[in-house]
Amino acid sequence: MTSRSESLSTKADPATVSALLKRDGLVLLEGVHGRAHVIDLARRMVTPWQHRDAESDGVTVISDRGAHAERPGFAGFGTGGLSPHTESSALAIPPRMLLLVCGAPAARGGESVIVDGAAVYADLLAEDPVVIDRLRQPRSVRFAPGRWGSVFTTTADGCVSLRLRLDDLAYFTEPVQAVLPKLIDAIRRHQRILPLKTGEGYLLDNRRMLHGRNSFTGQSARVMFRVLGDPTDAITLPTGFMPRGTTLPVGV
Predict the structure, then answer these.
(1) Closest CA to 234 of 109, 66, 70, 47
(2) Which residue of 50, 114, 124, 212 is 20 to 30 Å from 84, comparing CA positions?
(3) In terms of residue numbers, what domain contains 106?
(4) What Cα–Cα distance (Å) separates residue 9 from each residue in 16, 86, 114, 166?
(5) How many domains does the chain have?
(6) pTM of the model as a whole
(7) Tens digits of per-residue pLDDT, 108-165?
(8) Is residue 237 part of a domain?
């Protein structure tokens, strides 16, 4: 797997994982072979959620389920591409972390796509601060019926939290619609393509990173194992990412 940093094995210690998540919002993984291995890794890093699609162990098996993917909110169970997004944006408090591991790659396509929201934020702020102002406005995006919010939210200690979906379930007010093309262009500029192989994956901060995938084809079934949840006591995360030019509060 090509990356800017070395992938960690499943023996990575929580302190190293915490430092990488704080710095990059992302940890790349390798050597995670099989569902049992995924569960073992997750339990050391993530307190699993019982997500709508998860089984009793907290693992969601993502694969092509045919017509099931045509239902609103279930596109991940098809073969189409997924726009970069944060996970479970319709929830009042989405899961903080996402673990994704490749059980089997697609014959063609299906590469994972990740985007650093901190880089997108800095890019837009430098290009046109008005764009950031509009993306920070409260109740400017509806993520689900009755669930209003904003793309970027400033936390009490000055960090920034990201929430985004670009599918048919999202509704953007007119001021946000006007700057949406600039947001999408910035996302494209900062996207990274990860052609995950069997046993490779990533752990990401869901308040900072966007994730998606390319469409795929072929007879070989693409299988991914996903775990959503919050950090275990061994993992320490800030409330969000700090805009460039500022620093995290002491002790975070």
Answers:
(1) 47
(2) 50
(3) 14-230
(4) 11, 25, 20, 33
(5) 1
(6) 0.90
(7) 999 999 999 999 999 999 999 999 999 999 999 999 888 999 999 999 999 999 999 9
(8) no
